[in-house]
Amino acid sequence: MKKLLKMKSTLIHFLSVFLLIGCNQKEVLIKPNILLILTDDQGWGDLSFHGNKLVETPHIDALAKESIVFDRFYVSPVCAPTRASMLTGRYHIATGTTWVTHRMEVMREEEVTIAELLKPHGYVSGLFGKWHQGKQFPHDPIGQGFDEFFGFAEGHLNNYFDTKLTHNFEEVKTEGFLPDVLTDKAIEFMEKQDLFFAMLSFNTPHSPFQVPDAYFDKYKSKGLDEKDACVYGMVENIDDNVGRLMHYLKQSGKIDNTIVIFMTDNGPNGIRYNGGMKGKKADLDEGGVRVPFFIKIPGYGNQVIKPWGGHIDILPTLAAILSIEIPGNLVIHGKSLFPLIKGVAGNWEDRYFFTHHVHLKFDTIPGAVRNQEYLLTLKNKQKALYNLLLDPSQKNNILETEPDIANELEKLYLDWLNEMTKKGVDPPLIQVGHPNVPTVELPASDGKRSGNVLYKGEMGWANDWFINFKKPEDKVFWEIETVENARYDVFVQMANDSPFKMEIFGQEKSFIYETDQLHQAKLIPNRDRVPRTEVEEMEWPMLSVGEISFEKGKTSLEISFLGEQFENIGVKGVVLRKLK
After folding, report:
1. Strands of 5-84, DSSP E
2. Residue 534: C-alpha distances to residues 132, 314, 360, 538, 540 (Å)
3. Largest Cα–Cα distance of the chain, in whole Å?
4. Helix (H) or strand (E) holding 217
């Protein structure tokens, strides 16, 4: 598919093609730049534009007043699924992304992203901030079409001040508050490019709850508790950075030829103002999946679109605006919203929007299906039907009075789920052996465990590590696919309170690493406003334990500890550095 897209570039002309758009029939070149701003865990109600009397978001409000506003825009209940659908125009389950950790967030490499669709048409694409679709190439941003990546691949970072990020394949140290740093880098990128797709994926207001004093103190003085004061402070900081972005575009003159999108990835990460909607992040209900979506297009003024749109519609909508043909063998689940924007939709046909959510294990539920009028939610031993036009706050379950509608919607949902899972739901394997990738990281959250081994943070979110090694049968391992024969130096990120003997097993061979030296992980101080639920950030010792050769094919890399007594061993992960 990706080769097909590259071949298509020879078929696309670059003559001066113009498109008449806007009420004033203004002529605008059909190849504008694109700036897509995506925030993390910011709900529909976390904007003063949507009636929140506490938070102040004047810059986002101003953008909304210059944009096409979708009154009902839907995403997934959590972040990685939303990103997969947004990037591909396809429901996330079909892309391989089903959840947020343990590699269930990884999108298959054959999926075609917006960046890959745009590349044959002269666009240079940059991603700044959170990726959350896979850490290792080719599941990372570079492997999925982005020319530049400055950010982090995991679901979240442990600290937002002076943190370490990834720049393409290199680790870099940053200074300052992370959203400010990401905005700086996005502006630098846009300055350098003649034709760009810039995706600025903010990490806030996702936990850990950290924000500069001025923002926190402002909202604390309004009587909010520490968490909400921090969340609203993070949101206002996002707003200030949106203001900086818009100032740059206007000052540079690029605003007249740049599409700007602002959206969020799921409902709010807590109970707070959300326009009276039921639910929050990780819920199927309106409050969990309805988010702000504003798109500013050169030549178009402000309008409000009432028919619903969703994350699966972004890719086909951009393709339609840019007059880019989507290859016929690329199955897109979304629909271009451009006819609605142009006001030529006629009798716009209502559709069904499907939602699926995973918690630890894949199941047919929780799930939901909605259209303009109805919402059916399917939860554990719970089924509910709502009329969203008459009851937008979902206060009245009409399941008993409208059983035929509920049954029809449930059948549609189950048929959809069956179609979306035809390729299975097993995550793709970690790939090694790519010639131009110098380092492959195998974090604990991407690994599996057996025996007594646990995660320090219980759930195994991003940045977690393995603990509780009790006996030699307690093992951790990473499932790997070698694309080309390769040899690596093996480093284990770990800490120990006593001597140990470690066995590393891979490619049907094993070797032993033994030491009587003690290694301690060093706590990196944080600036949390409230106690965190995720693990702390640590500086981990890197033990050089030997070399390993991978031969083409599928294998695993396994670690266990020999002997009868282990003292507080923690394993953060493995780093493979390619040997020439």
Report:
1. 18-21, 26-29, 33-39, 68-70, 73-74
2. 17, 32, 16, 12, 17
3. 80
4. helix 213-220
Hey, what domains does the chain have and what are their CATH numbers?
2-24+35-343 (3.40.720.10), 354-420 (3.30.1120.10), 430-578 (2.60.120.260)
Tokens describing residue 143 = 């492997």
The model's confidence at residue 99, banded by pLDDT at 50, 70 and 90, is very high
Residue 100: which pLDDT band, with cuts at 50, 70 and 90? very high
- Closest Cα to residue 559, out of 510, 520, 523, 488? 510
Return all residues near 111 (Cβ < 8 A) that are at least 6 apart. Answer: 84, 87, 88, 90, 95, 96, 144
Cα separation of 439 and 490, whole Å?
10
Beta carbons of 310 and 334 less than 8 angstroms apart: yes
522-528-532-534 Cα dihedral, nearest 10 degrees: -50
The kind and range of the H/E element at 385 are: strand 382-387
Nearest of 325, 319, 294 to residue 114 by alpha carbon = 319
Checking if the pLDDT of 180 tops 50, the result is yes
Q: Which helix (H) or strand (E) holds 339?
A: helix 338-342
The strand pair at 303-305 and 353-356 is best described as: unpaired
Give the least confident one: 11-25, 209-223, 368-382, 528-542.
Answer: 11-25
Task: Give residue-wise pLDDT tens across range 236-287.
Answer: 999 999 999 999 999 999 999 999 999 999 999 999 999 999 999 999 999 9
Distances in Å between the Cα of 25 and the Cα atoms of 301, 323, 324, 337 are 12, 17, 21, 19
